[in-house]
Design goal:
Shape of chain A: flat
CATH topology of the largest domain in chain B: Rossmann fold
Order of helices and strands of chain B: HHEHEEHEHEHHH
Number of helices of chain A: 2
Number of strands of chain B: 5
Distance between the termini of chain B: 31 Å
Number of domains of chain B: 2
Structural class of chain A: alpha+beta
Radius of gyration of chain B: 19 Å
Largest sheet of chain B: 5 strands, parallel
Strand content of chain A: 35-45%
Helix content of chain B: 25-40%
Distance between the termini of chain A: 44 Å
Number of domains of chain A: 2
CATH topology of the largest domain in chain A: Immunoglobulin-like
CATH class of the largest domain in chain B: Alpha Beta
Strand content of chain B: 5-15%
CATH class of the largest domain in chain A: Mainly Beta
CATH architecture of the largest domain in chain A: Sandwich
Radius of gyration of chain A: 28 Å
Oligomer: heterodimer
Largest sheet of chain A: 7 strands, mixed
Chain lengths: 353, 204
């Protein structure tokens, strides 16, 4: 089907690659394919994600233009100049499950075509970091702090454990009542609640595993020289603890990983996709016996690749970096904690939240 | 840095996730015969099918003929939508409403397009509603070709060649995935992530 109107964008940079915060100028040419009334031209700028996850997008930024034609005629073309300053991000990213792009959209407000969308088109801009400038790391980004680790949510785990435990208990009572009044085969159903109770126990164990491990290991401290890194930068981490009892150590490792995590759908159709962009594990200590009150003080350093992608956090779409520390001891009670690390274009500037 | 999928003359991976309204535009179906029936109150069109067969997309595709009709989706993890009165209602995941709520909704003088995992035929009959059911199952090679072509065209960046599917590839997809479009999309997403040049899409 023929479009009622064609558009052409001409930007001051043919490759459309701009630095965050840069001034952009250009001309949008409107080429009507039929004569129609119109009440103006809207230009809108916004970022959005595309890929495997549900779409996340920024607020529409309206760009003022001077276009006051009440009618556009077939066979003519109308050139409308525009100019705007790009925001501080998010930056363009093309990954596996996640992509982030900026779009400039032109919409001709043509009120005489009921039931049809106004003629419109959009074009992409590539937004790269600008030296020394701070960058927006996404609408849901929160800076790392020592109190908030990447994987600690004890209250959430307790609530979940309570729900599963409660369901298990109710089912147990209900099935027992049925089993007592029915054939003996019904007693087998009493085993089903055990699955729920098992999940509940596992959730509680997982959330308190570190506390249990600390009764043997003592308080474990992990410190960093910095938690914000640039691509190609080094991360230095120090792990310290004083065992309270004798510990049969299997190994101590640190793993630095960067990953895209996106969510598709909702409810029962909700599915999470994770794609690892970088992963490196280093062993700080091997199998040994640690004696009580021994001071364990280990350091490790990681070099980020020069093409490490930047941190980005939006609803259902994120690119995160974490350092996962593991103290693997004999038995099931290991100590494991992940710490949020941010990869940003510039370290010495504040990050816009 | 280059534009995403510019080397394939596409703007994005055609098998990535799209918002529902964009999915609806890409729905391939025979909507016209149902559209005329829905113009009069007292008629229910029930859409059934297993997960991934395109119930929601079909419902939204049909709704494009009635852009003013409200659409309600009841997510599994809530919140429950408040269904307003309207001459035509599109209700996604009807089975999540309680029988009492369903009765209240269906009692209003309206027509309904319902997607559901359960058949509510008896409830429609008890309320004297005319009803018809569509079960989304089975997928022909021709229909699959139209679905995939629409997806590719929607992702087109500019005039000129774009990747395409040959008959043999479609046959292989149908052999492997049957009518499970969602699994097929997941597979094709990966294929397009690693596709280097424009041409016929090859699969193992």
């Amino acid at each position: 089907m023929r479009n009622s109107c064609d558009f052409q964008f001409s930007l001051d940079k043919a490759d459309r690659i701009y630095e965050a915060g840069a001034d952009v100028t250009g001309i949008v040419t409107i080429i009507p394919q039929k004569t129609m009334r119109c009440s103006g031209l809207k230009l809108e700028l916004r970022w959005r994600t595309h890929g495997r996850g549900n779409r996340a997008q920024g607020q529409v930024i309206s760009i003022p233009v001077n276009f006051y034609e009440a009618e556009v005629s077939e066979g003519q073309s109308y050139e409308v100049p525009f100019g705007f300053t790009l925001p501080s991000g998010p930056l363009t990213y093309h990954g596996h499950n996640l992509n982030i792009d900026w779009y400039l959209k032109a919409i001709l407000d043509a009120p005489l075509v009921p039931g049809f969308l106004d003629p419109q088109t959009e074009t992409e801009l590539l937004v790269l970091p600008k030296e020394g400038e701070s960058v927006n790391l996404g609408p849901n980004y929160k800076a790392p702090d020592d109190a908030r680790r990447a994987s600690s949510n004890k209250w959430g785990s307790l609530i979940m454990a309570g729900i599963f435990g409660g369901i298990g208990l109710i089912m147990f009572l209900a099935f027992n009542a049925v089993a007592n009044s029915g054939p003996s085969i019904f007693r087998l159903f009493s085993l089903i609640p055990l699955i729920f109770v098992g999940i509940s126990v596992w959730v509680v164990f997982s959330s308190f595993r570190n506390s249990l491990a600390s009764s043997k290991l003592g308080e474990v401290s992990v410190r960093f020289d910095k938690r914000k890194l640039v691509p190609g930068g080094s991360l230095n981490a120090k792990l310290e603890f004083h065992p309270q009892k004798q510990v049969n150590l299997v190994k101590i490792t640190m793993t630095l990983k960067g990953f895209e995590r996106v969510v598709r759908g909702s409810g029962s159709n909700r599915k999470t996709f994770t794609h690892t962009v970088f992963e490196e594990t280093k062993e700080l200590a091997g199998a040994s016996i640690l004696s009580p009150a021994q001071h364990v003080n280990l350091s490790e350093s990681f070099d980020l690749p020069f093409d490490a992608p930047y941190t980005f956090v939006a609803s259902d779409n994120e690119l995160r970096w974490e350092l996962e520390c593991l103290i693997d001891t004999q038995g099931i009670i290991d100590w494991k904690q992940a710490y949020q690390i941010d990869v940003v274009p510039w370290v010495d500037n504040d990050i816009i939240n | 840095m280059q534009a995403a999928f510019g080397h394939l003359n596409l703007s994005y991976n055609p098998f990535g996730e799209l918002p529902l309204e964009e999915k609806a535009k890409l729905m391939v179906g025979e909507f016209e015969s149902y559209a005329s029936k829905l113009e009069h109150p007292g008629y229910v069109l029930q859409i059934m099918g297993e997960m991934g067969r395109g119930k929601s997309s079909f419902l939204l595709g049909l709704r494009r003929h009635f852009p003013d009709a409200p659409y309600y989706y009841y997510p599994e993890d809530g919140p429950k939508p408040t269904v307003a009165k309207a001459p035509l209602l599109f209700l996604d995941e009807m089975q999540r409403f309680t029988p009492k709520e369903r009765k209240r909704i269906l009692q209003q003088r309206a027509s309904f397009v319902i997607s559901t995992h359960k058949d509510f035929k008896e409830e429609y009959e008890a309320l004297g509603l005319r009803h018809e059911a569509i079960c989304l199952q089975g997928l022909s090679k021709d229909k699959l070709q139209r679905i995939l072509k629409k997806r590719l065209e929607a992702a087109r960046r500019s005039p000129g060649p774009i990747p395409y599917f040959e008959d043999r590839t479609l046959e292989k997809l149908l052999e492997r995935f049957g009518d499970d479009l969602r699994s097929m999309e997941d597979y094709l997403y990966e294929i397009f992530q690693s596709l280097k040049v424009i041409g016929a899409i090859k699969i193992d």
